[in-house]
């Protein structure tokens, strides 16, 4: 990870629905890097996870199904790539930071899945694949709101 990316990750703030922000040249000022408009996600509450030189995060709403997204952002570029549109079946309203284990990202949703009690999911950037690992049923837990 480059020093510039480390600084961005350490000082980055996610607005409660609006933008991905970075420190500006003048101390105390912030620069908007990306606006979340709804179609690319909305309400990005969690922090970001760095894998190589790419940052990954989630939005708890917005996207094509209004159930949230998983996105990537590469510093220096002016856009966010929507990688997963949650649809209820694979989860709904992800709101916690993703965990990187060997290049695979893991996360949880508090809603959606077979019982609408949340899911545990994985995303593999190299293959652009998402998998539902667990559907919470109440017997094995429900409505996870913290990261994994």
Automatic annotation (TrEMBL):
It comes from Acidicaldus sp. Keywords: Signal. It comes from the Bacteria. Residues 1-27 form the signal peptide. This is PEP-CTERM sorting domain-containing protein. The keyword Signal applies.
């Amino acid at each position: 990870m480059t020093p510039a990316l480390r600084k961005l990750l350490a000082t980055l703030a996610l607005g409660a629905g609006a933008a991905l922000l970075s420190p500006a040249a003048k101390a105390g000022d912030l620069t908007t890097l990306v606006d979340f408009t709804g179609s690319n996600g909305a309400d990005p509450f969690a922090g970001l996870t760095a894998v190589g030189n790419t940052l990954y995060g989630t939005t708890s709403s917005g996207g094509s199904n209004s159930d949230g997204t998983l996105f990537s952002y590469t510093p220096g570029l002016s856009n966010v790539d929507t990688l997963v549109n949650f649809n209820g079946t694979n989860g709904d309203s992800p709101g916690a930071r993703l965990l990187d284990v060997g290049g695979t990202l893991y996360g949880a949703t508090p809603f959606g899945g077979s019982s609408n009690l949340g899911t545990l999911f994985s995303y593999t950037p190299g293959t652009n694949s998402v998998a539902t690992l667990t559907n919470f049923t109440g017997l094995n837990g429900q409505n996870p709101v913290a990261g994994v």
